[in-house]
From TrEMBL:
Residues 242-262 are annotated as: Disordered. Pfam families: DUF3700. Signal peptide: none annotated. It comes from Zostera marina. The lineage of its organism: Eukaryota, Viridiplantae, Streptophyta, Embryophyta, Tracheophyta. This is Aluminum-induced protein. Residues 2-228 form the DUF3700 domain.
Length: 262
């Protein structure tokens, strides 16, 4: 799966935009170049392009039979899911879904409940998912991104920044050196990202998630990684007032701090 969101939409963490000078020759591609390369190497891929210049693509190439990829679109909400939810039967009943609803359909329903003023925070909802998973959701109407990865890292998910500032997410780790140069990192386990509220942990929702410089053996900056900072407690769990829509939530806390030495 692949999703590329235009710079005006993606709002990636500032840490991902740091391109080390010593690796300046490893130039990232633009979102248009990424689309061309991805679809040419996967001719059977399904591509969805949006009016803001963003796009999502899914291919079944190298798909694991134990952890398949699912795609679903409902009311201009698009979701690509990889992995499995072990307690999906219980969650189907909880959300009033049919027996044949797949995991991507479930995530769309979860998002819609959160967007439409659920009485509980997003971290609690995602924490209810049991299994190995990663997903990327895009609400084309509100230009809202909602992505997450399971707490154990059972499914791969990487993210980075293209040379035009677009945010790139994919479960194919091998594409990132070519697509994003050094401006890429593993998406942290047990975390949620939205382009409105930033990166947060659904395992440790009371603490900030910070980005740290990663250095090679010669002390040169080679990338960044993200992890929960147990010494930076948030003043409160973000809640959304009834007068706002979920997609426009502003908490005053970015969930990220400036890059620090790791």
């Amino acid at each position: 799966m692949l999703a590329v969101f235009a710079k005006e939409v993606g709002n990636p963490p500032v840490e991902l935009t740091h391109q080390p000078l010593e690796y300046a020759n490893n130039i990232p591609k633009s979102k248009n170049e990424i689309s061309q390369v991805f679809t040419s190497s996967r001719p059977n891929a399904t591509l969805f392009q949006f009016s803001d210049g963003s796009f999502m693509a899914m291919s079944h190439v190298d798909e694991s039979p134990l952890h398949p990829r699912f795609f679903m679109a409902v009311d201009e909400i698009f979701c690509i899911f990889v992995g499995d939810v072990e307690n999906i039967s219980d969650l189907r009943k909880h959300y009033g879904l049919s027996r044949n609803s797949n995991e991507a359909t479930l995530i769309i329903e979860v998002y819609k409940v959160l967007r439409d003023r659920a009485p509980y925070p997003s971290d609690q909802v995602i924490k209810d998912l049991v299994g190995n998973f990663a997903f990327i959701l895009y609400d084309a109407k509100s230009h809202s991104i909602f992505a997450a990865r399971d707490r154990d890292g059972g499914m791969k998910l990487h993210w980075g920044v293209a040379n035009d500032g677009s945010l790139v997410l994919s479960d194919d780790v091998e594409i990132f050196p070519d697509f994003c140069g050094m401006t890429s990192s593993s998406f942290p386990t047990g975390c949620i990202f939205t382009n409105k509220t930033g990166l947060t942990s659904f395992v440790h929702p009371l603490y900030k998630v910070r980005g740290y410089r990663q250095e090679d053996g010669e002390g040169r900056i080679s990338g960044v990684y993200f992890q929960v900072d147990i010494y930076s407690r948030l003043p409160s769990i973000p809640r959304v007032g009834s007068a706002q829509t979920w997609g426009d939530d502003q908490t005053g806390e970015s969930g990220l701090a400036d890059i620090q030495e790791g």
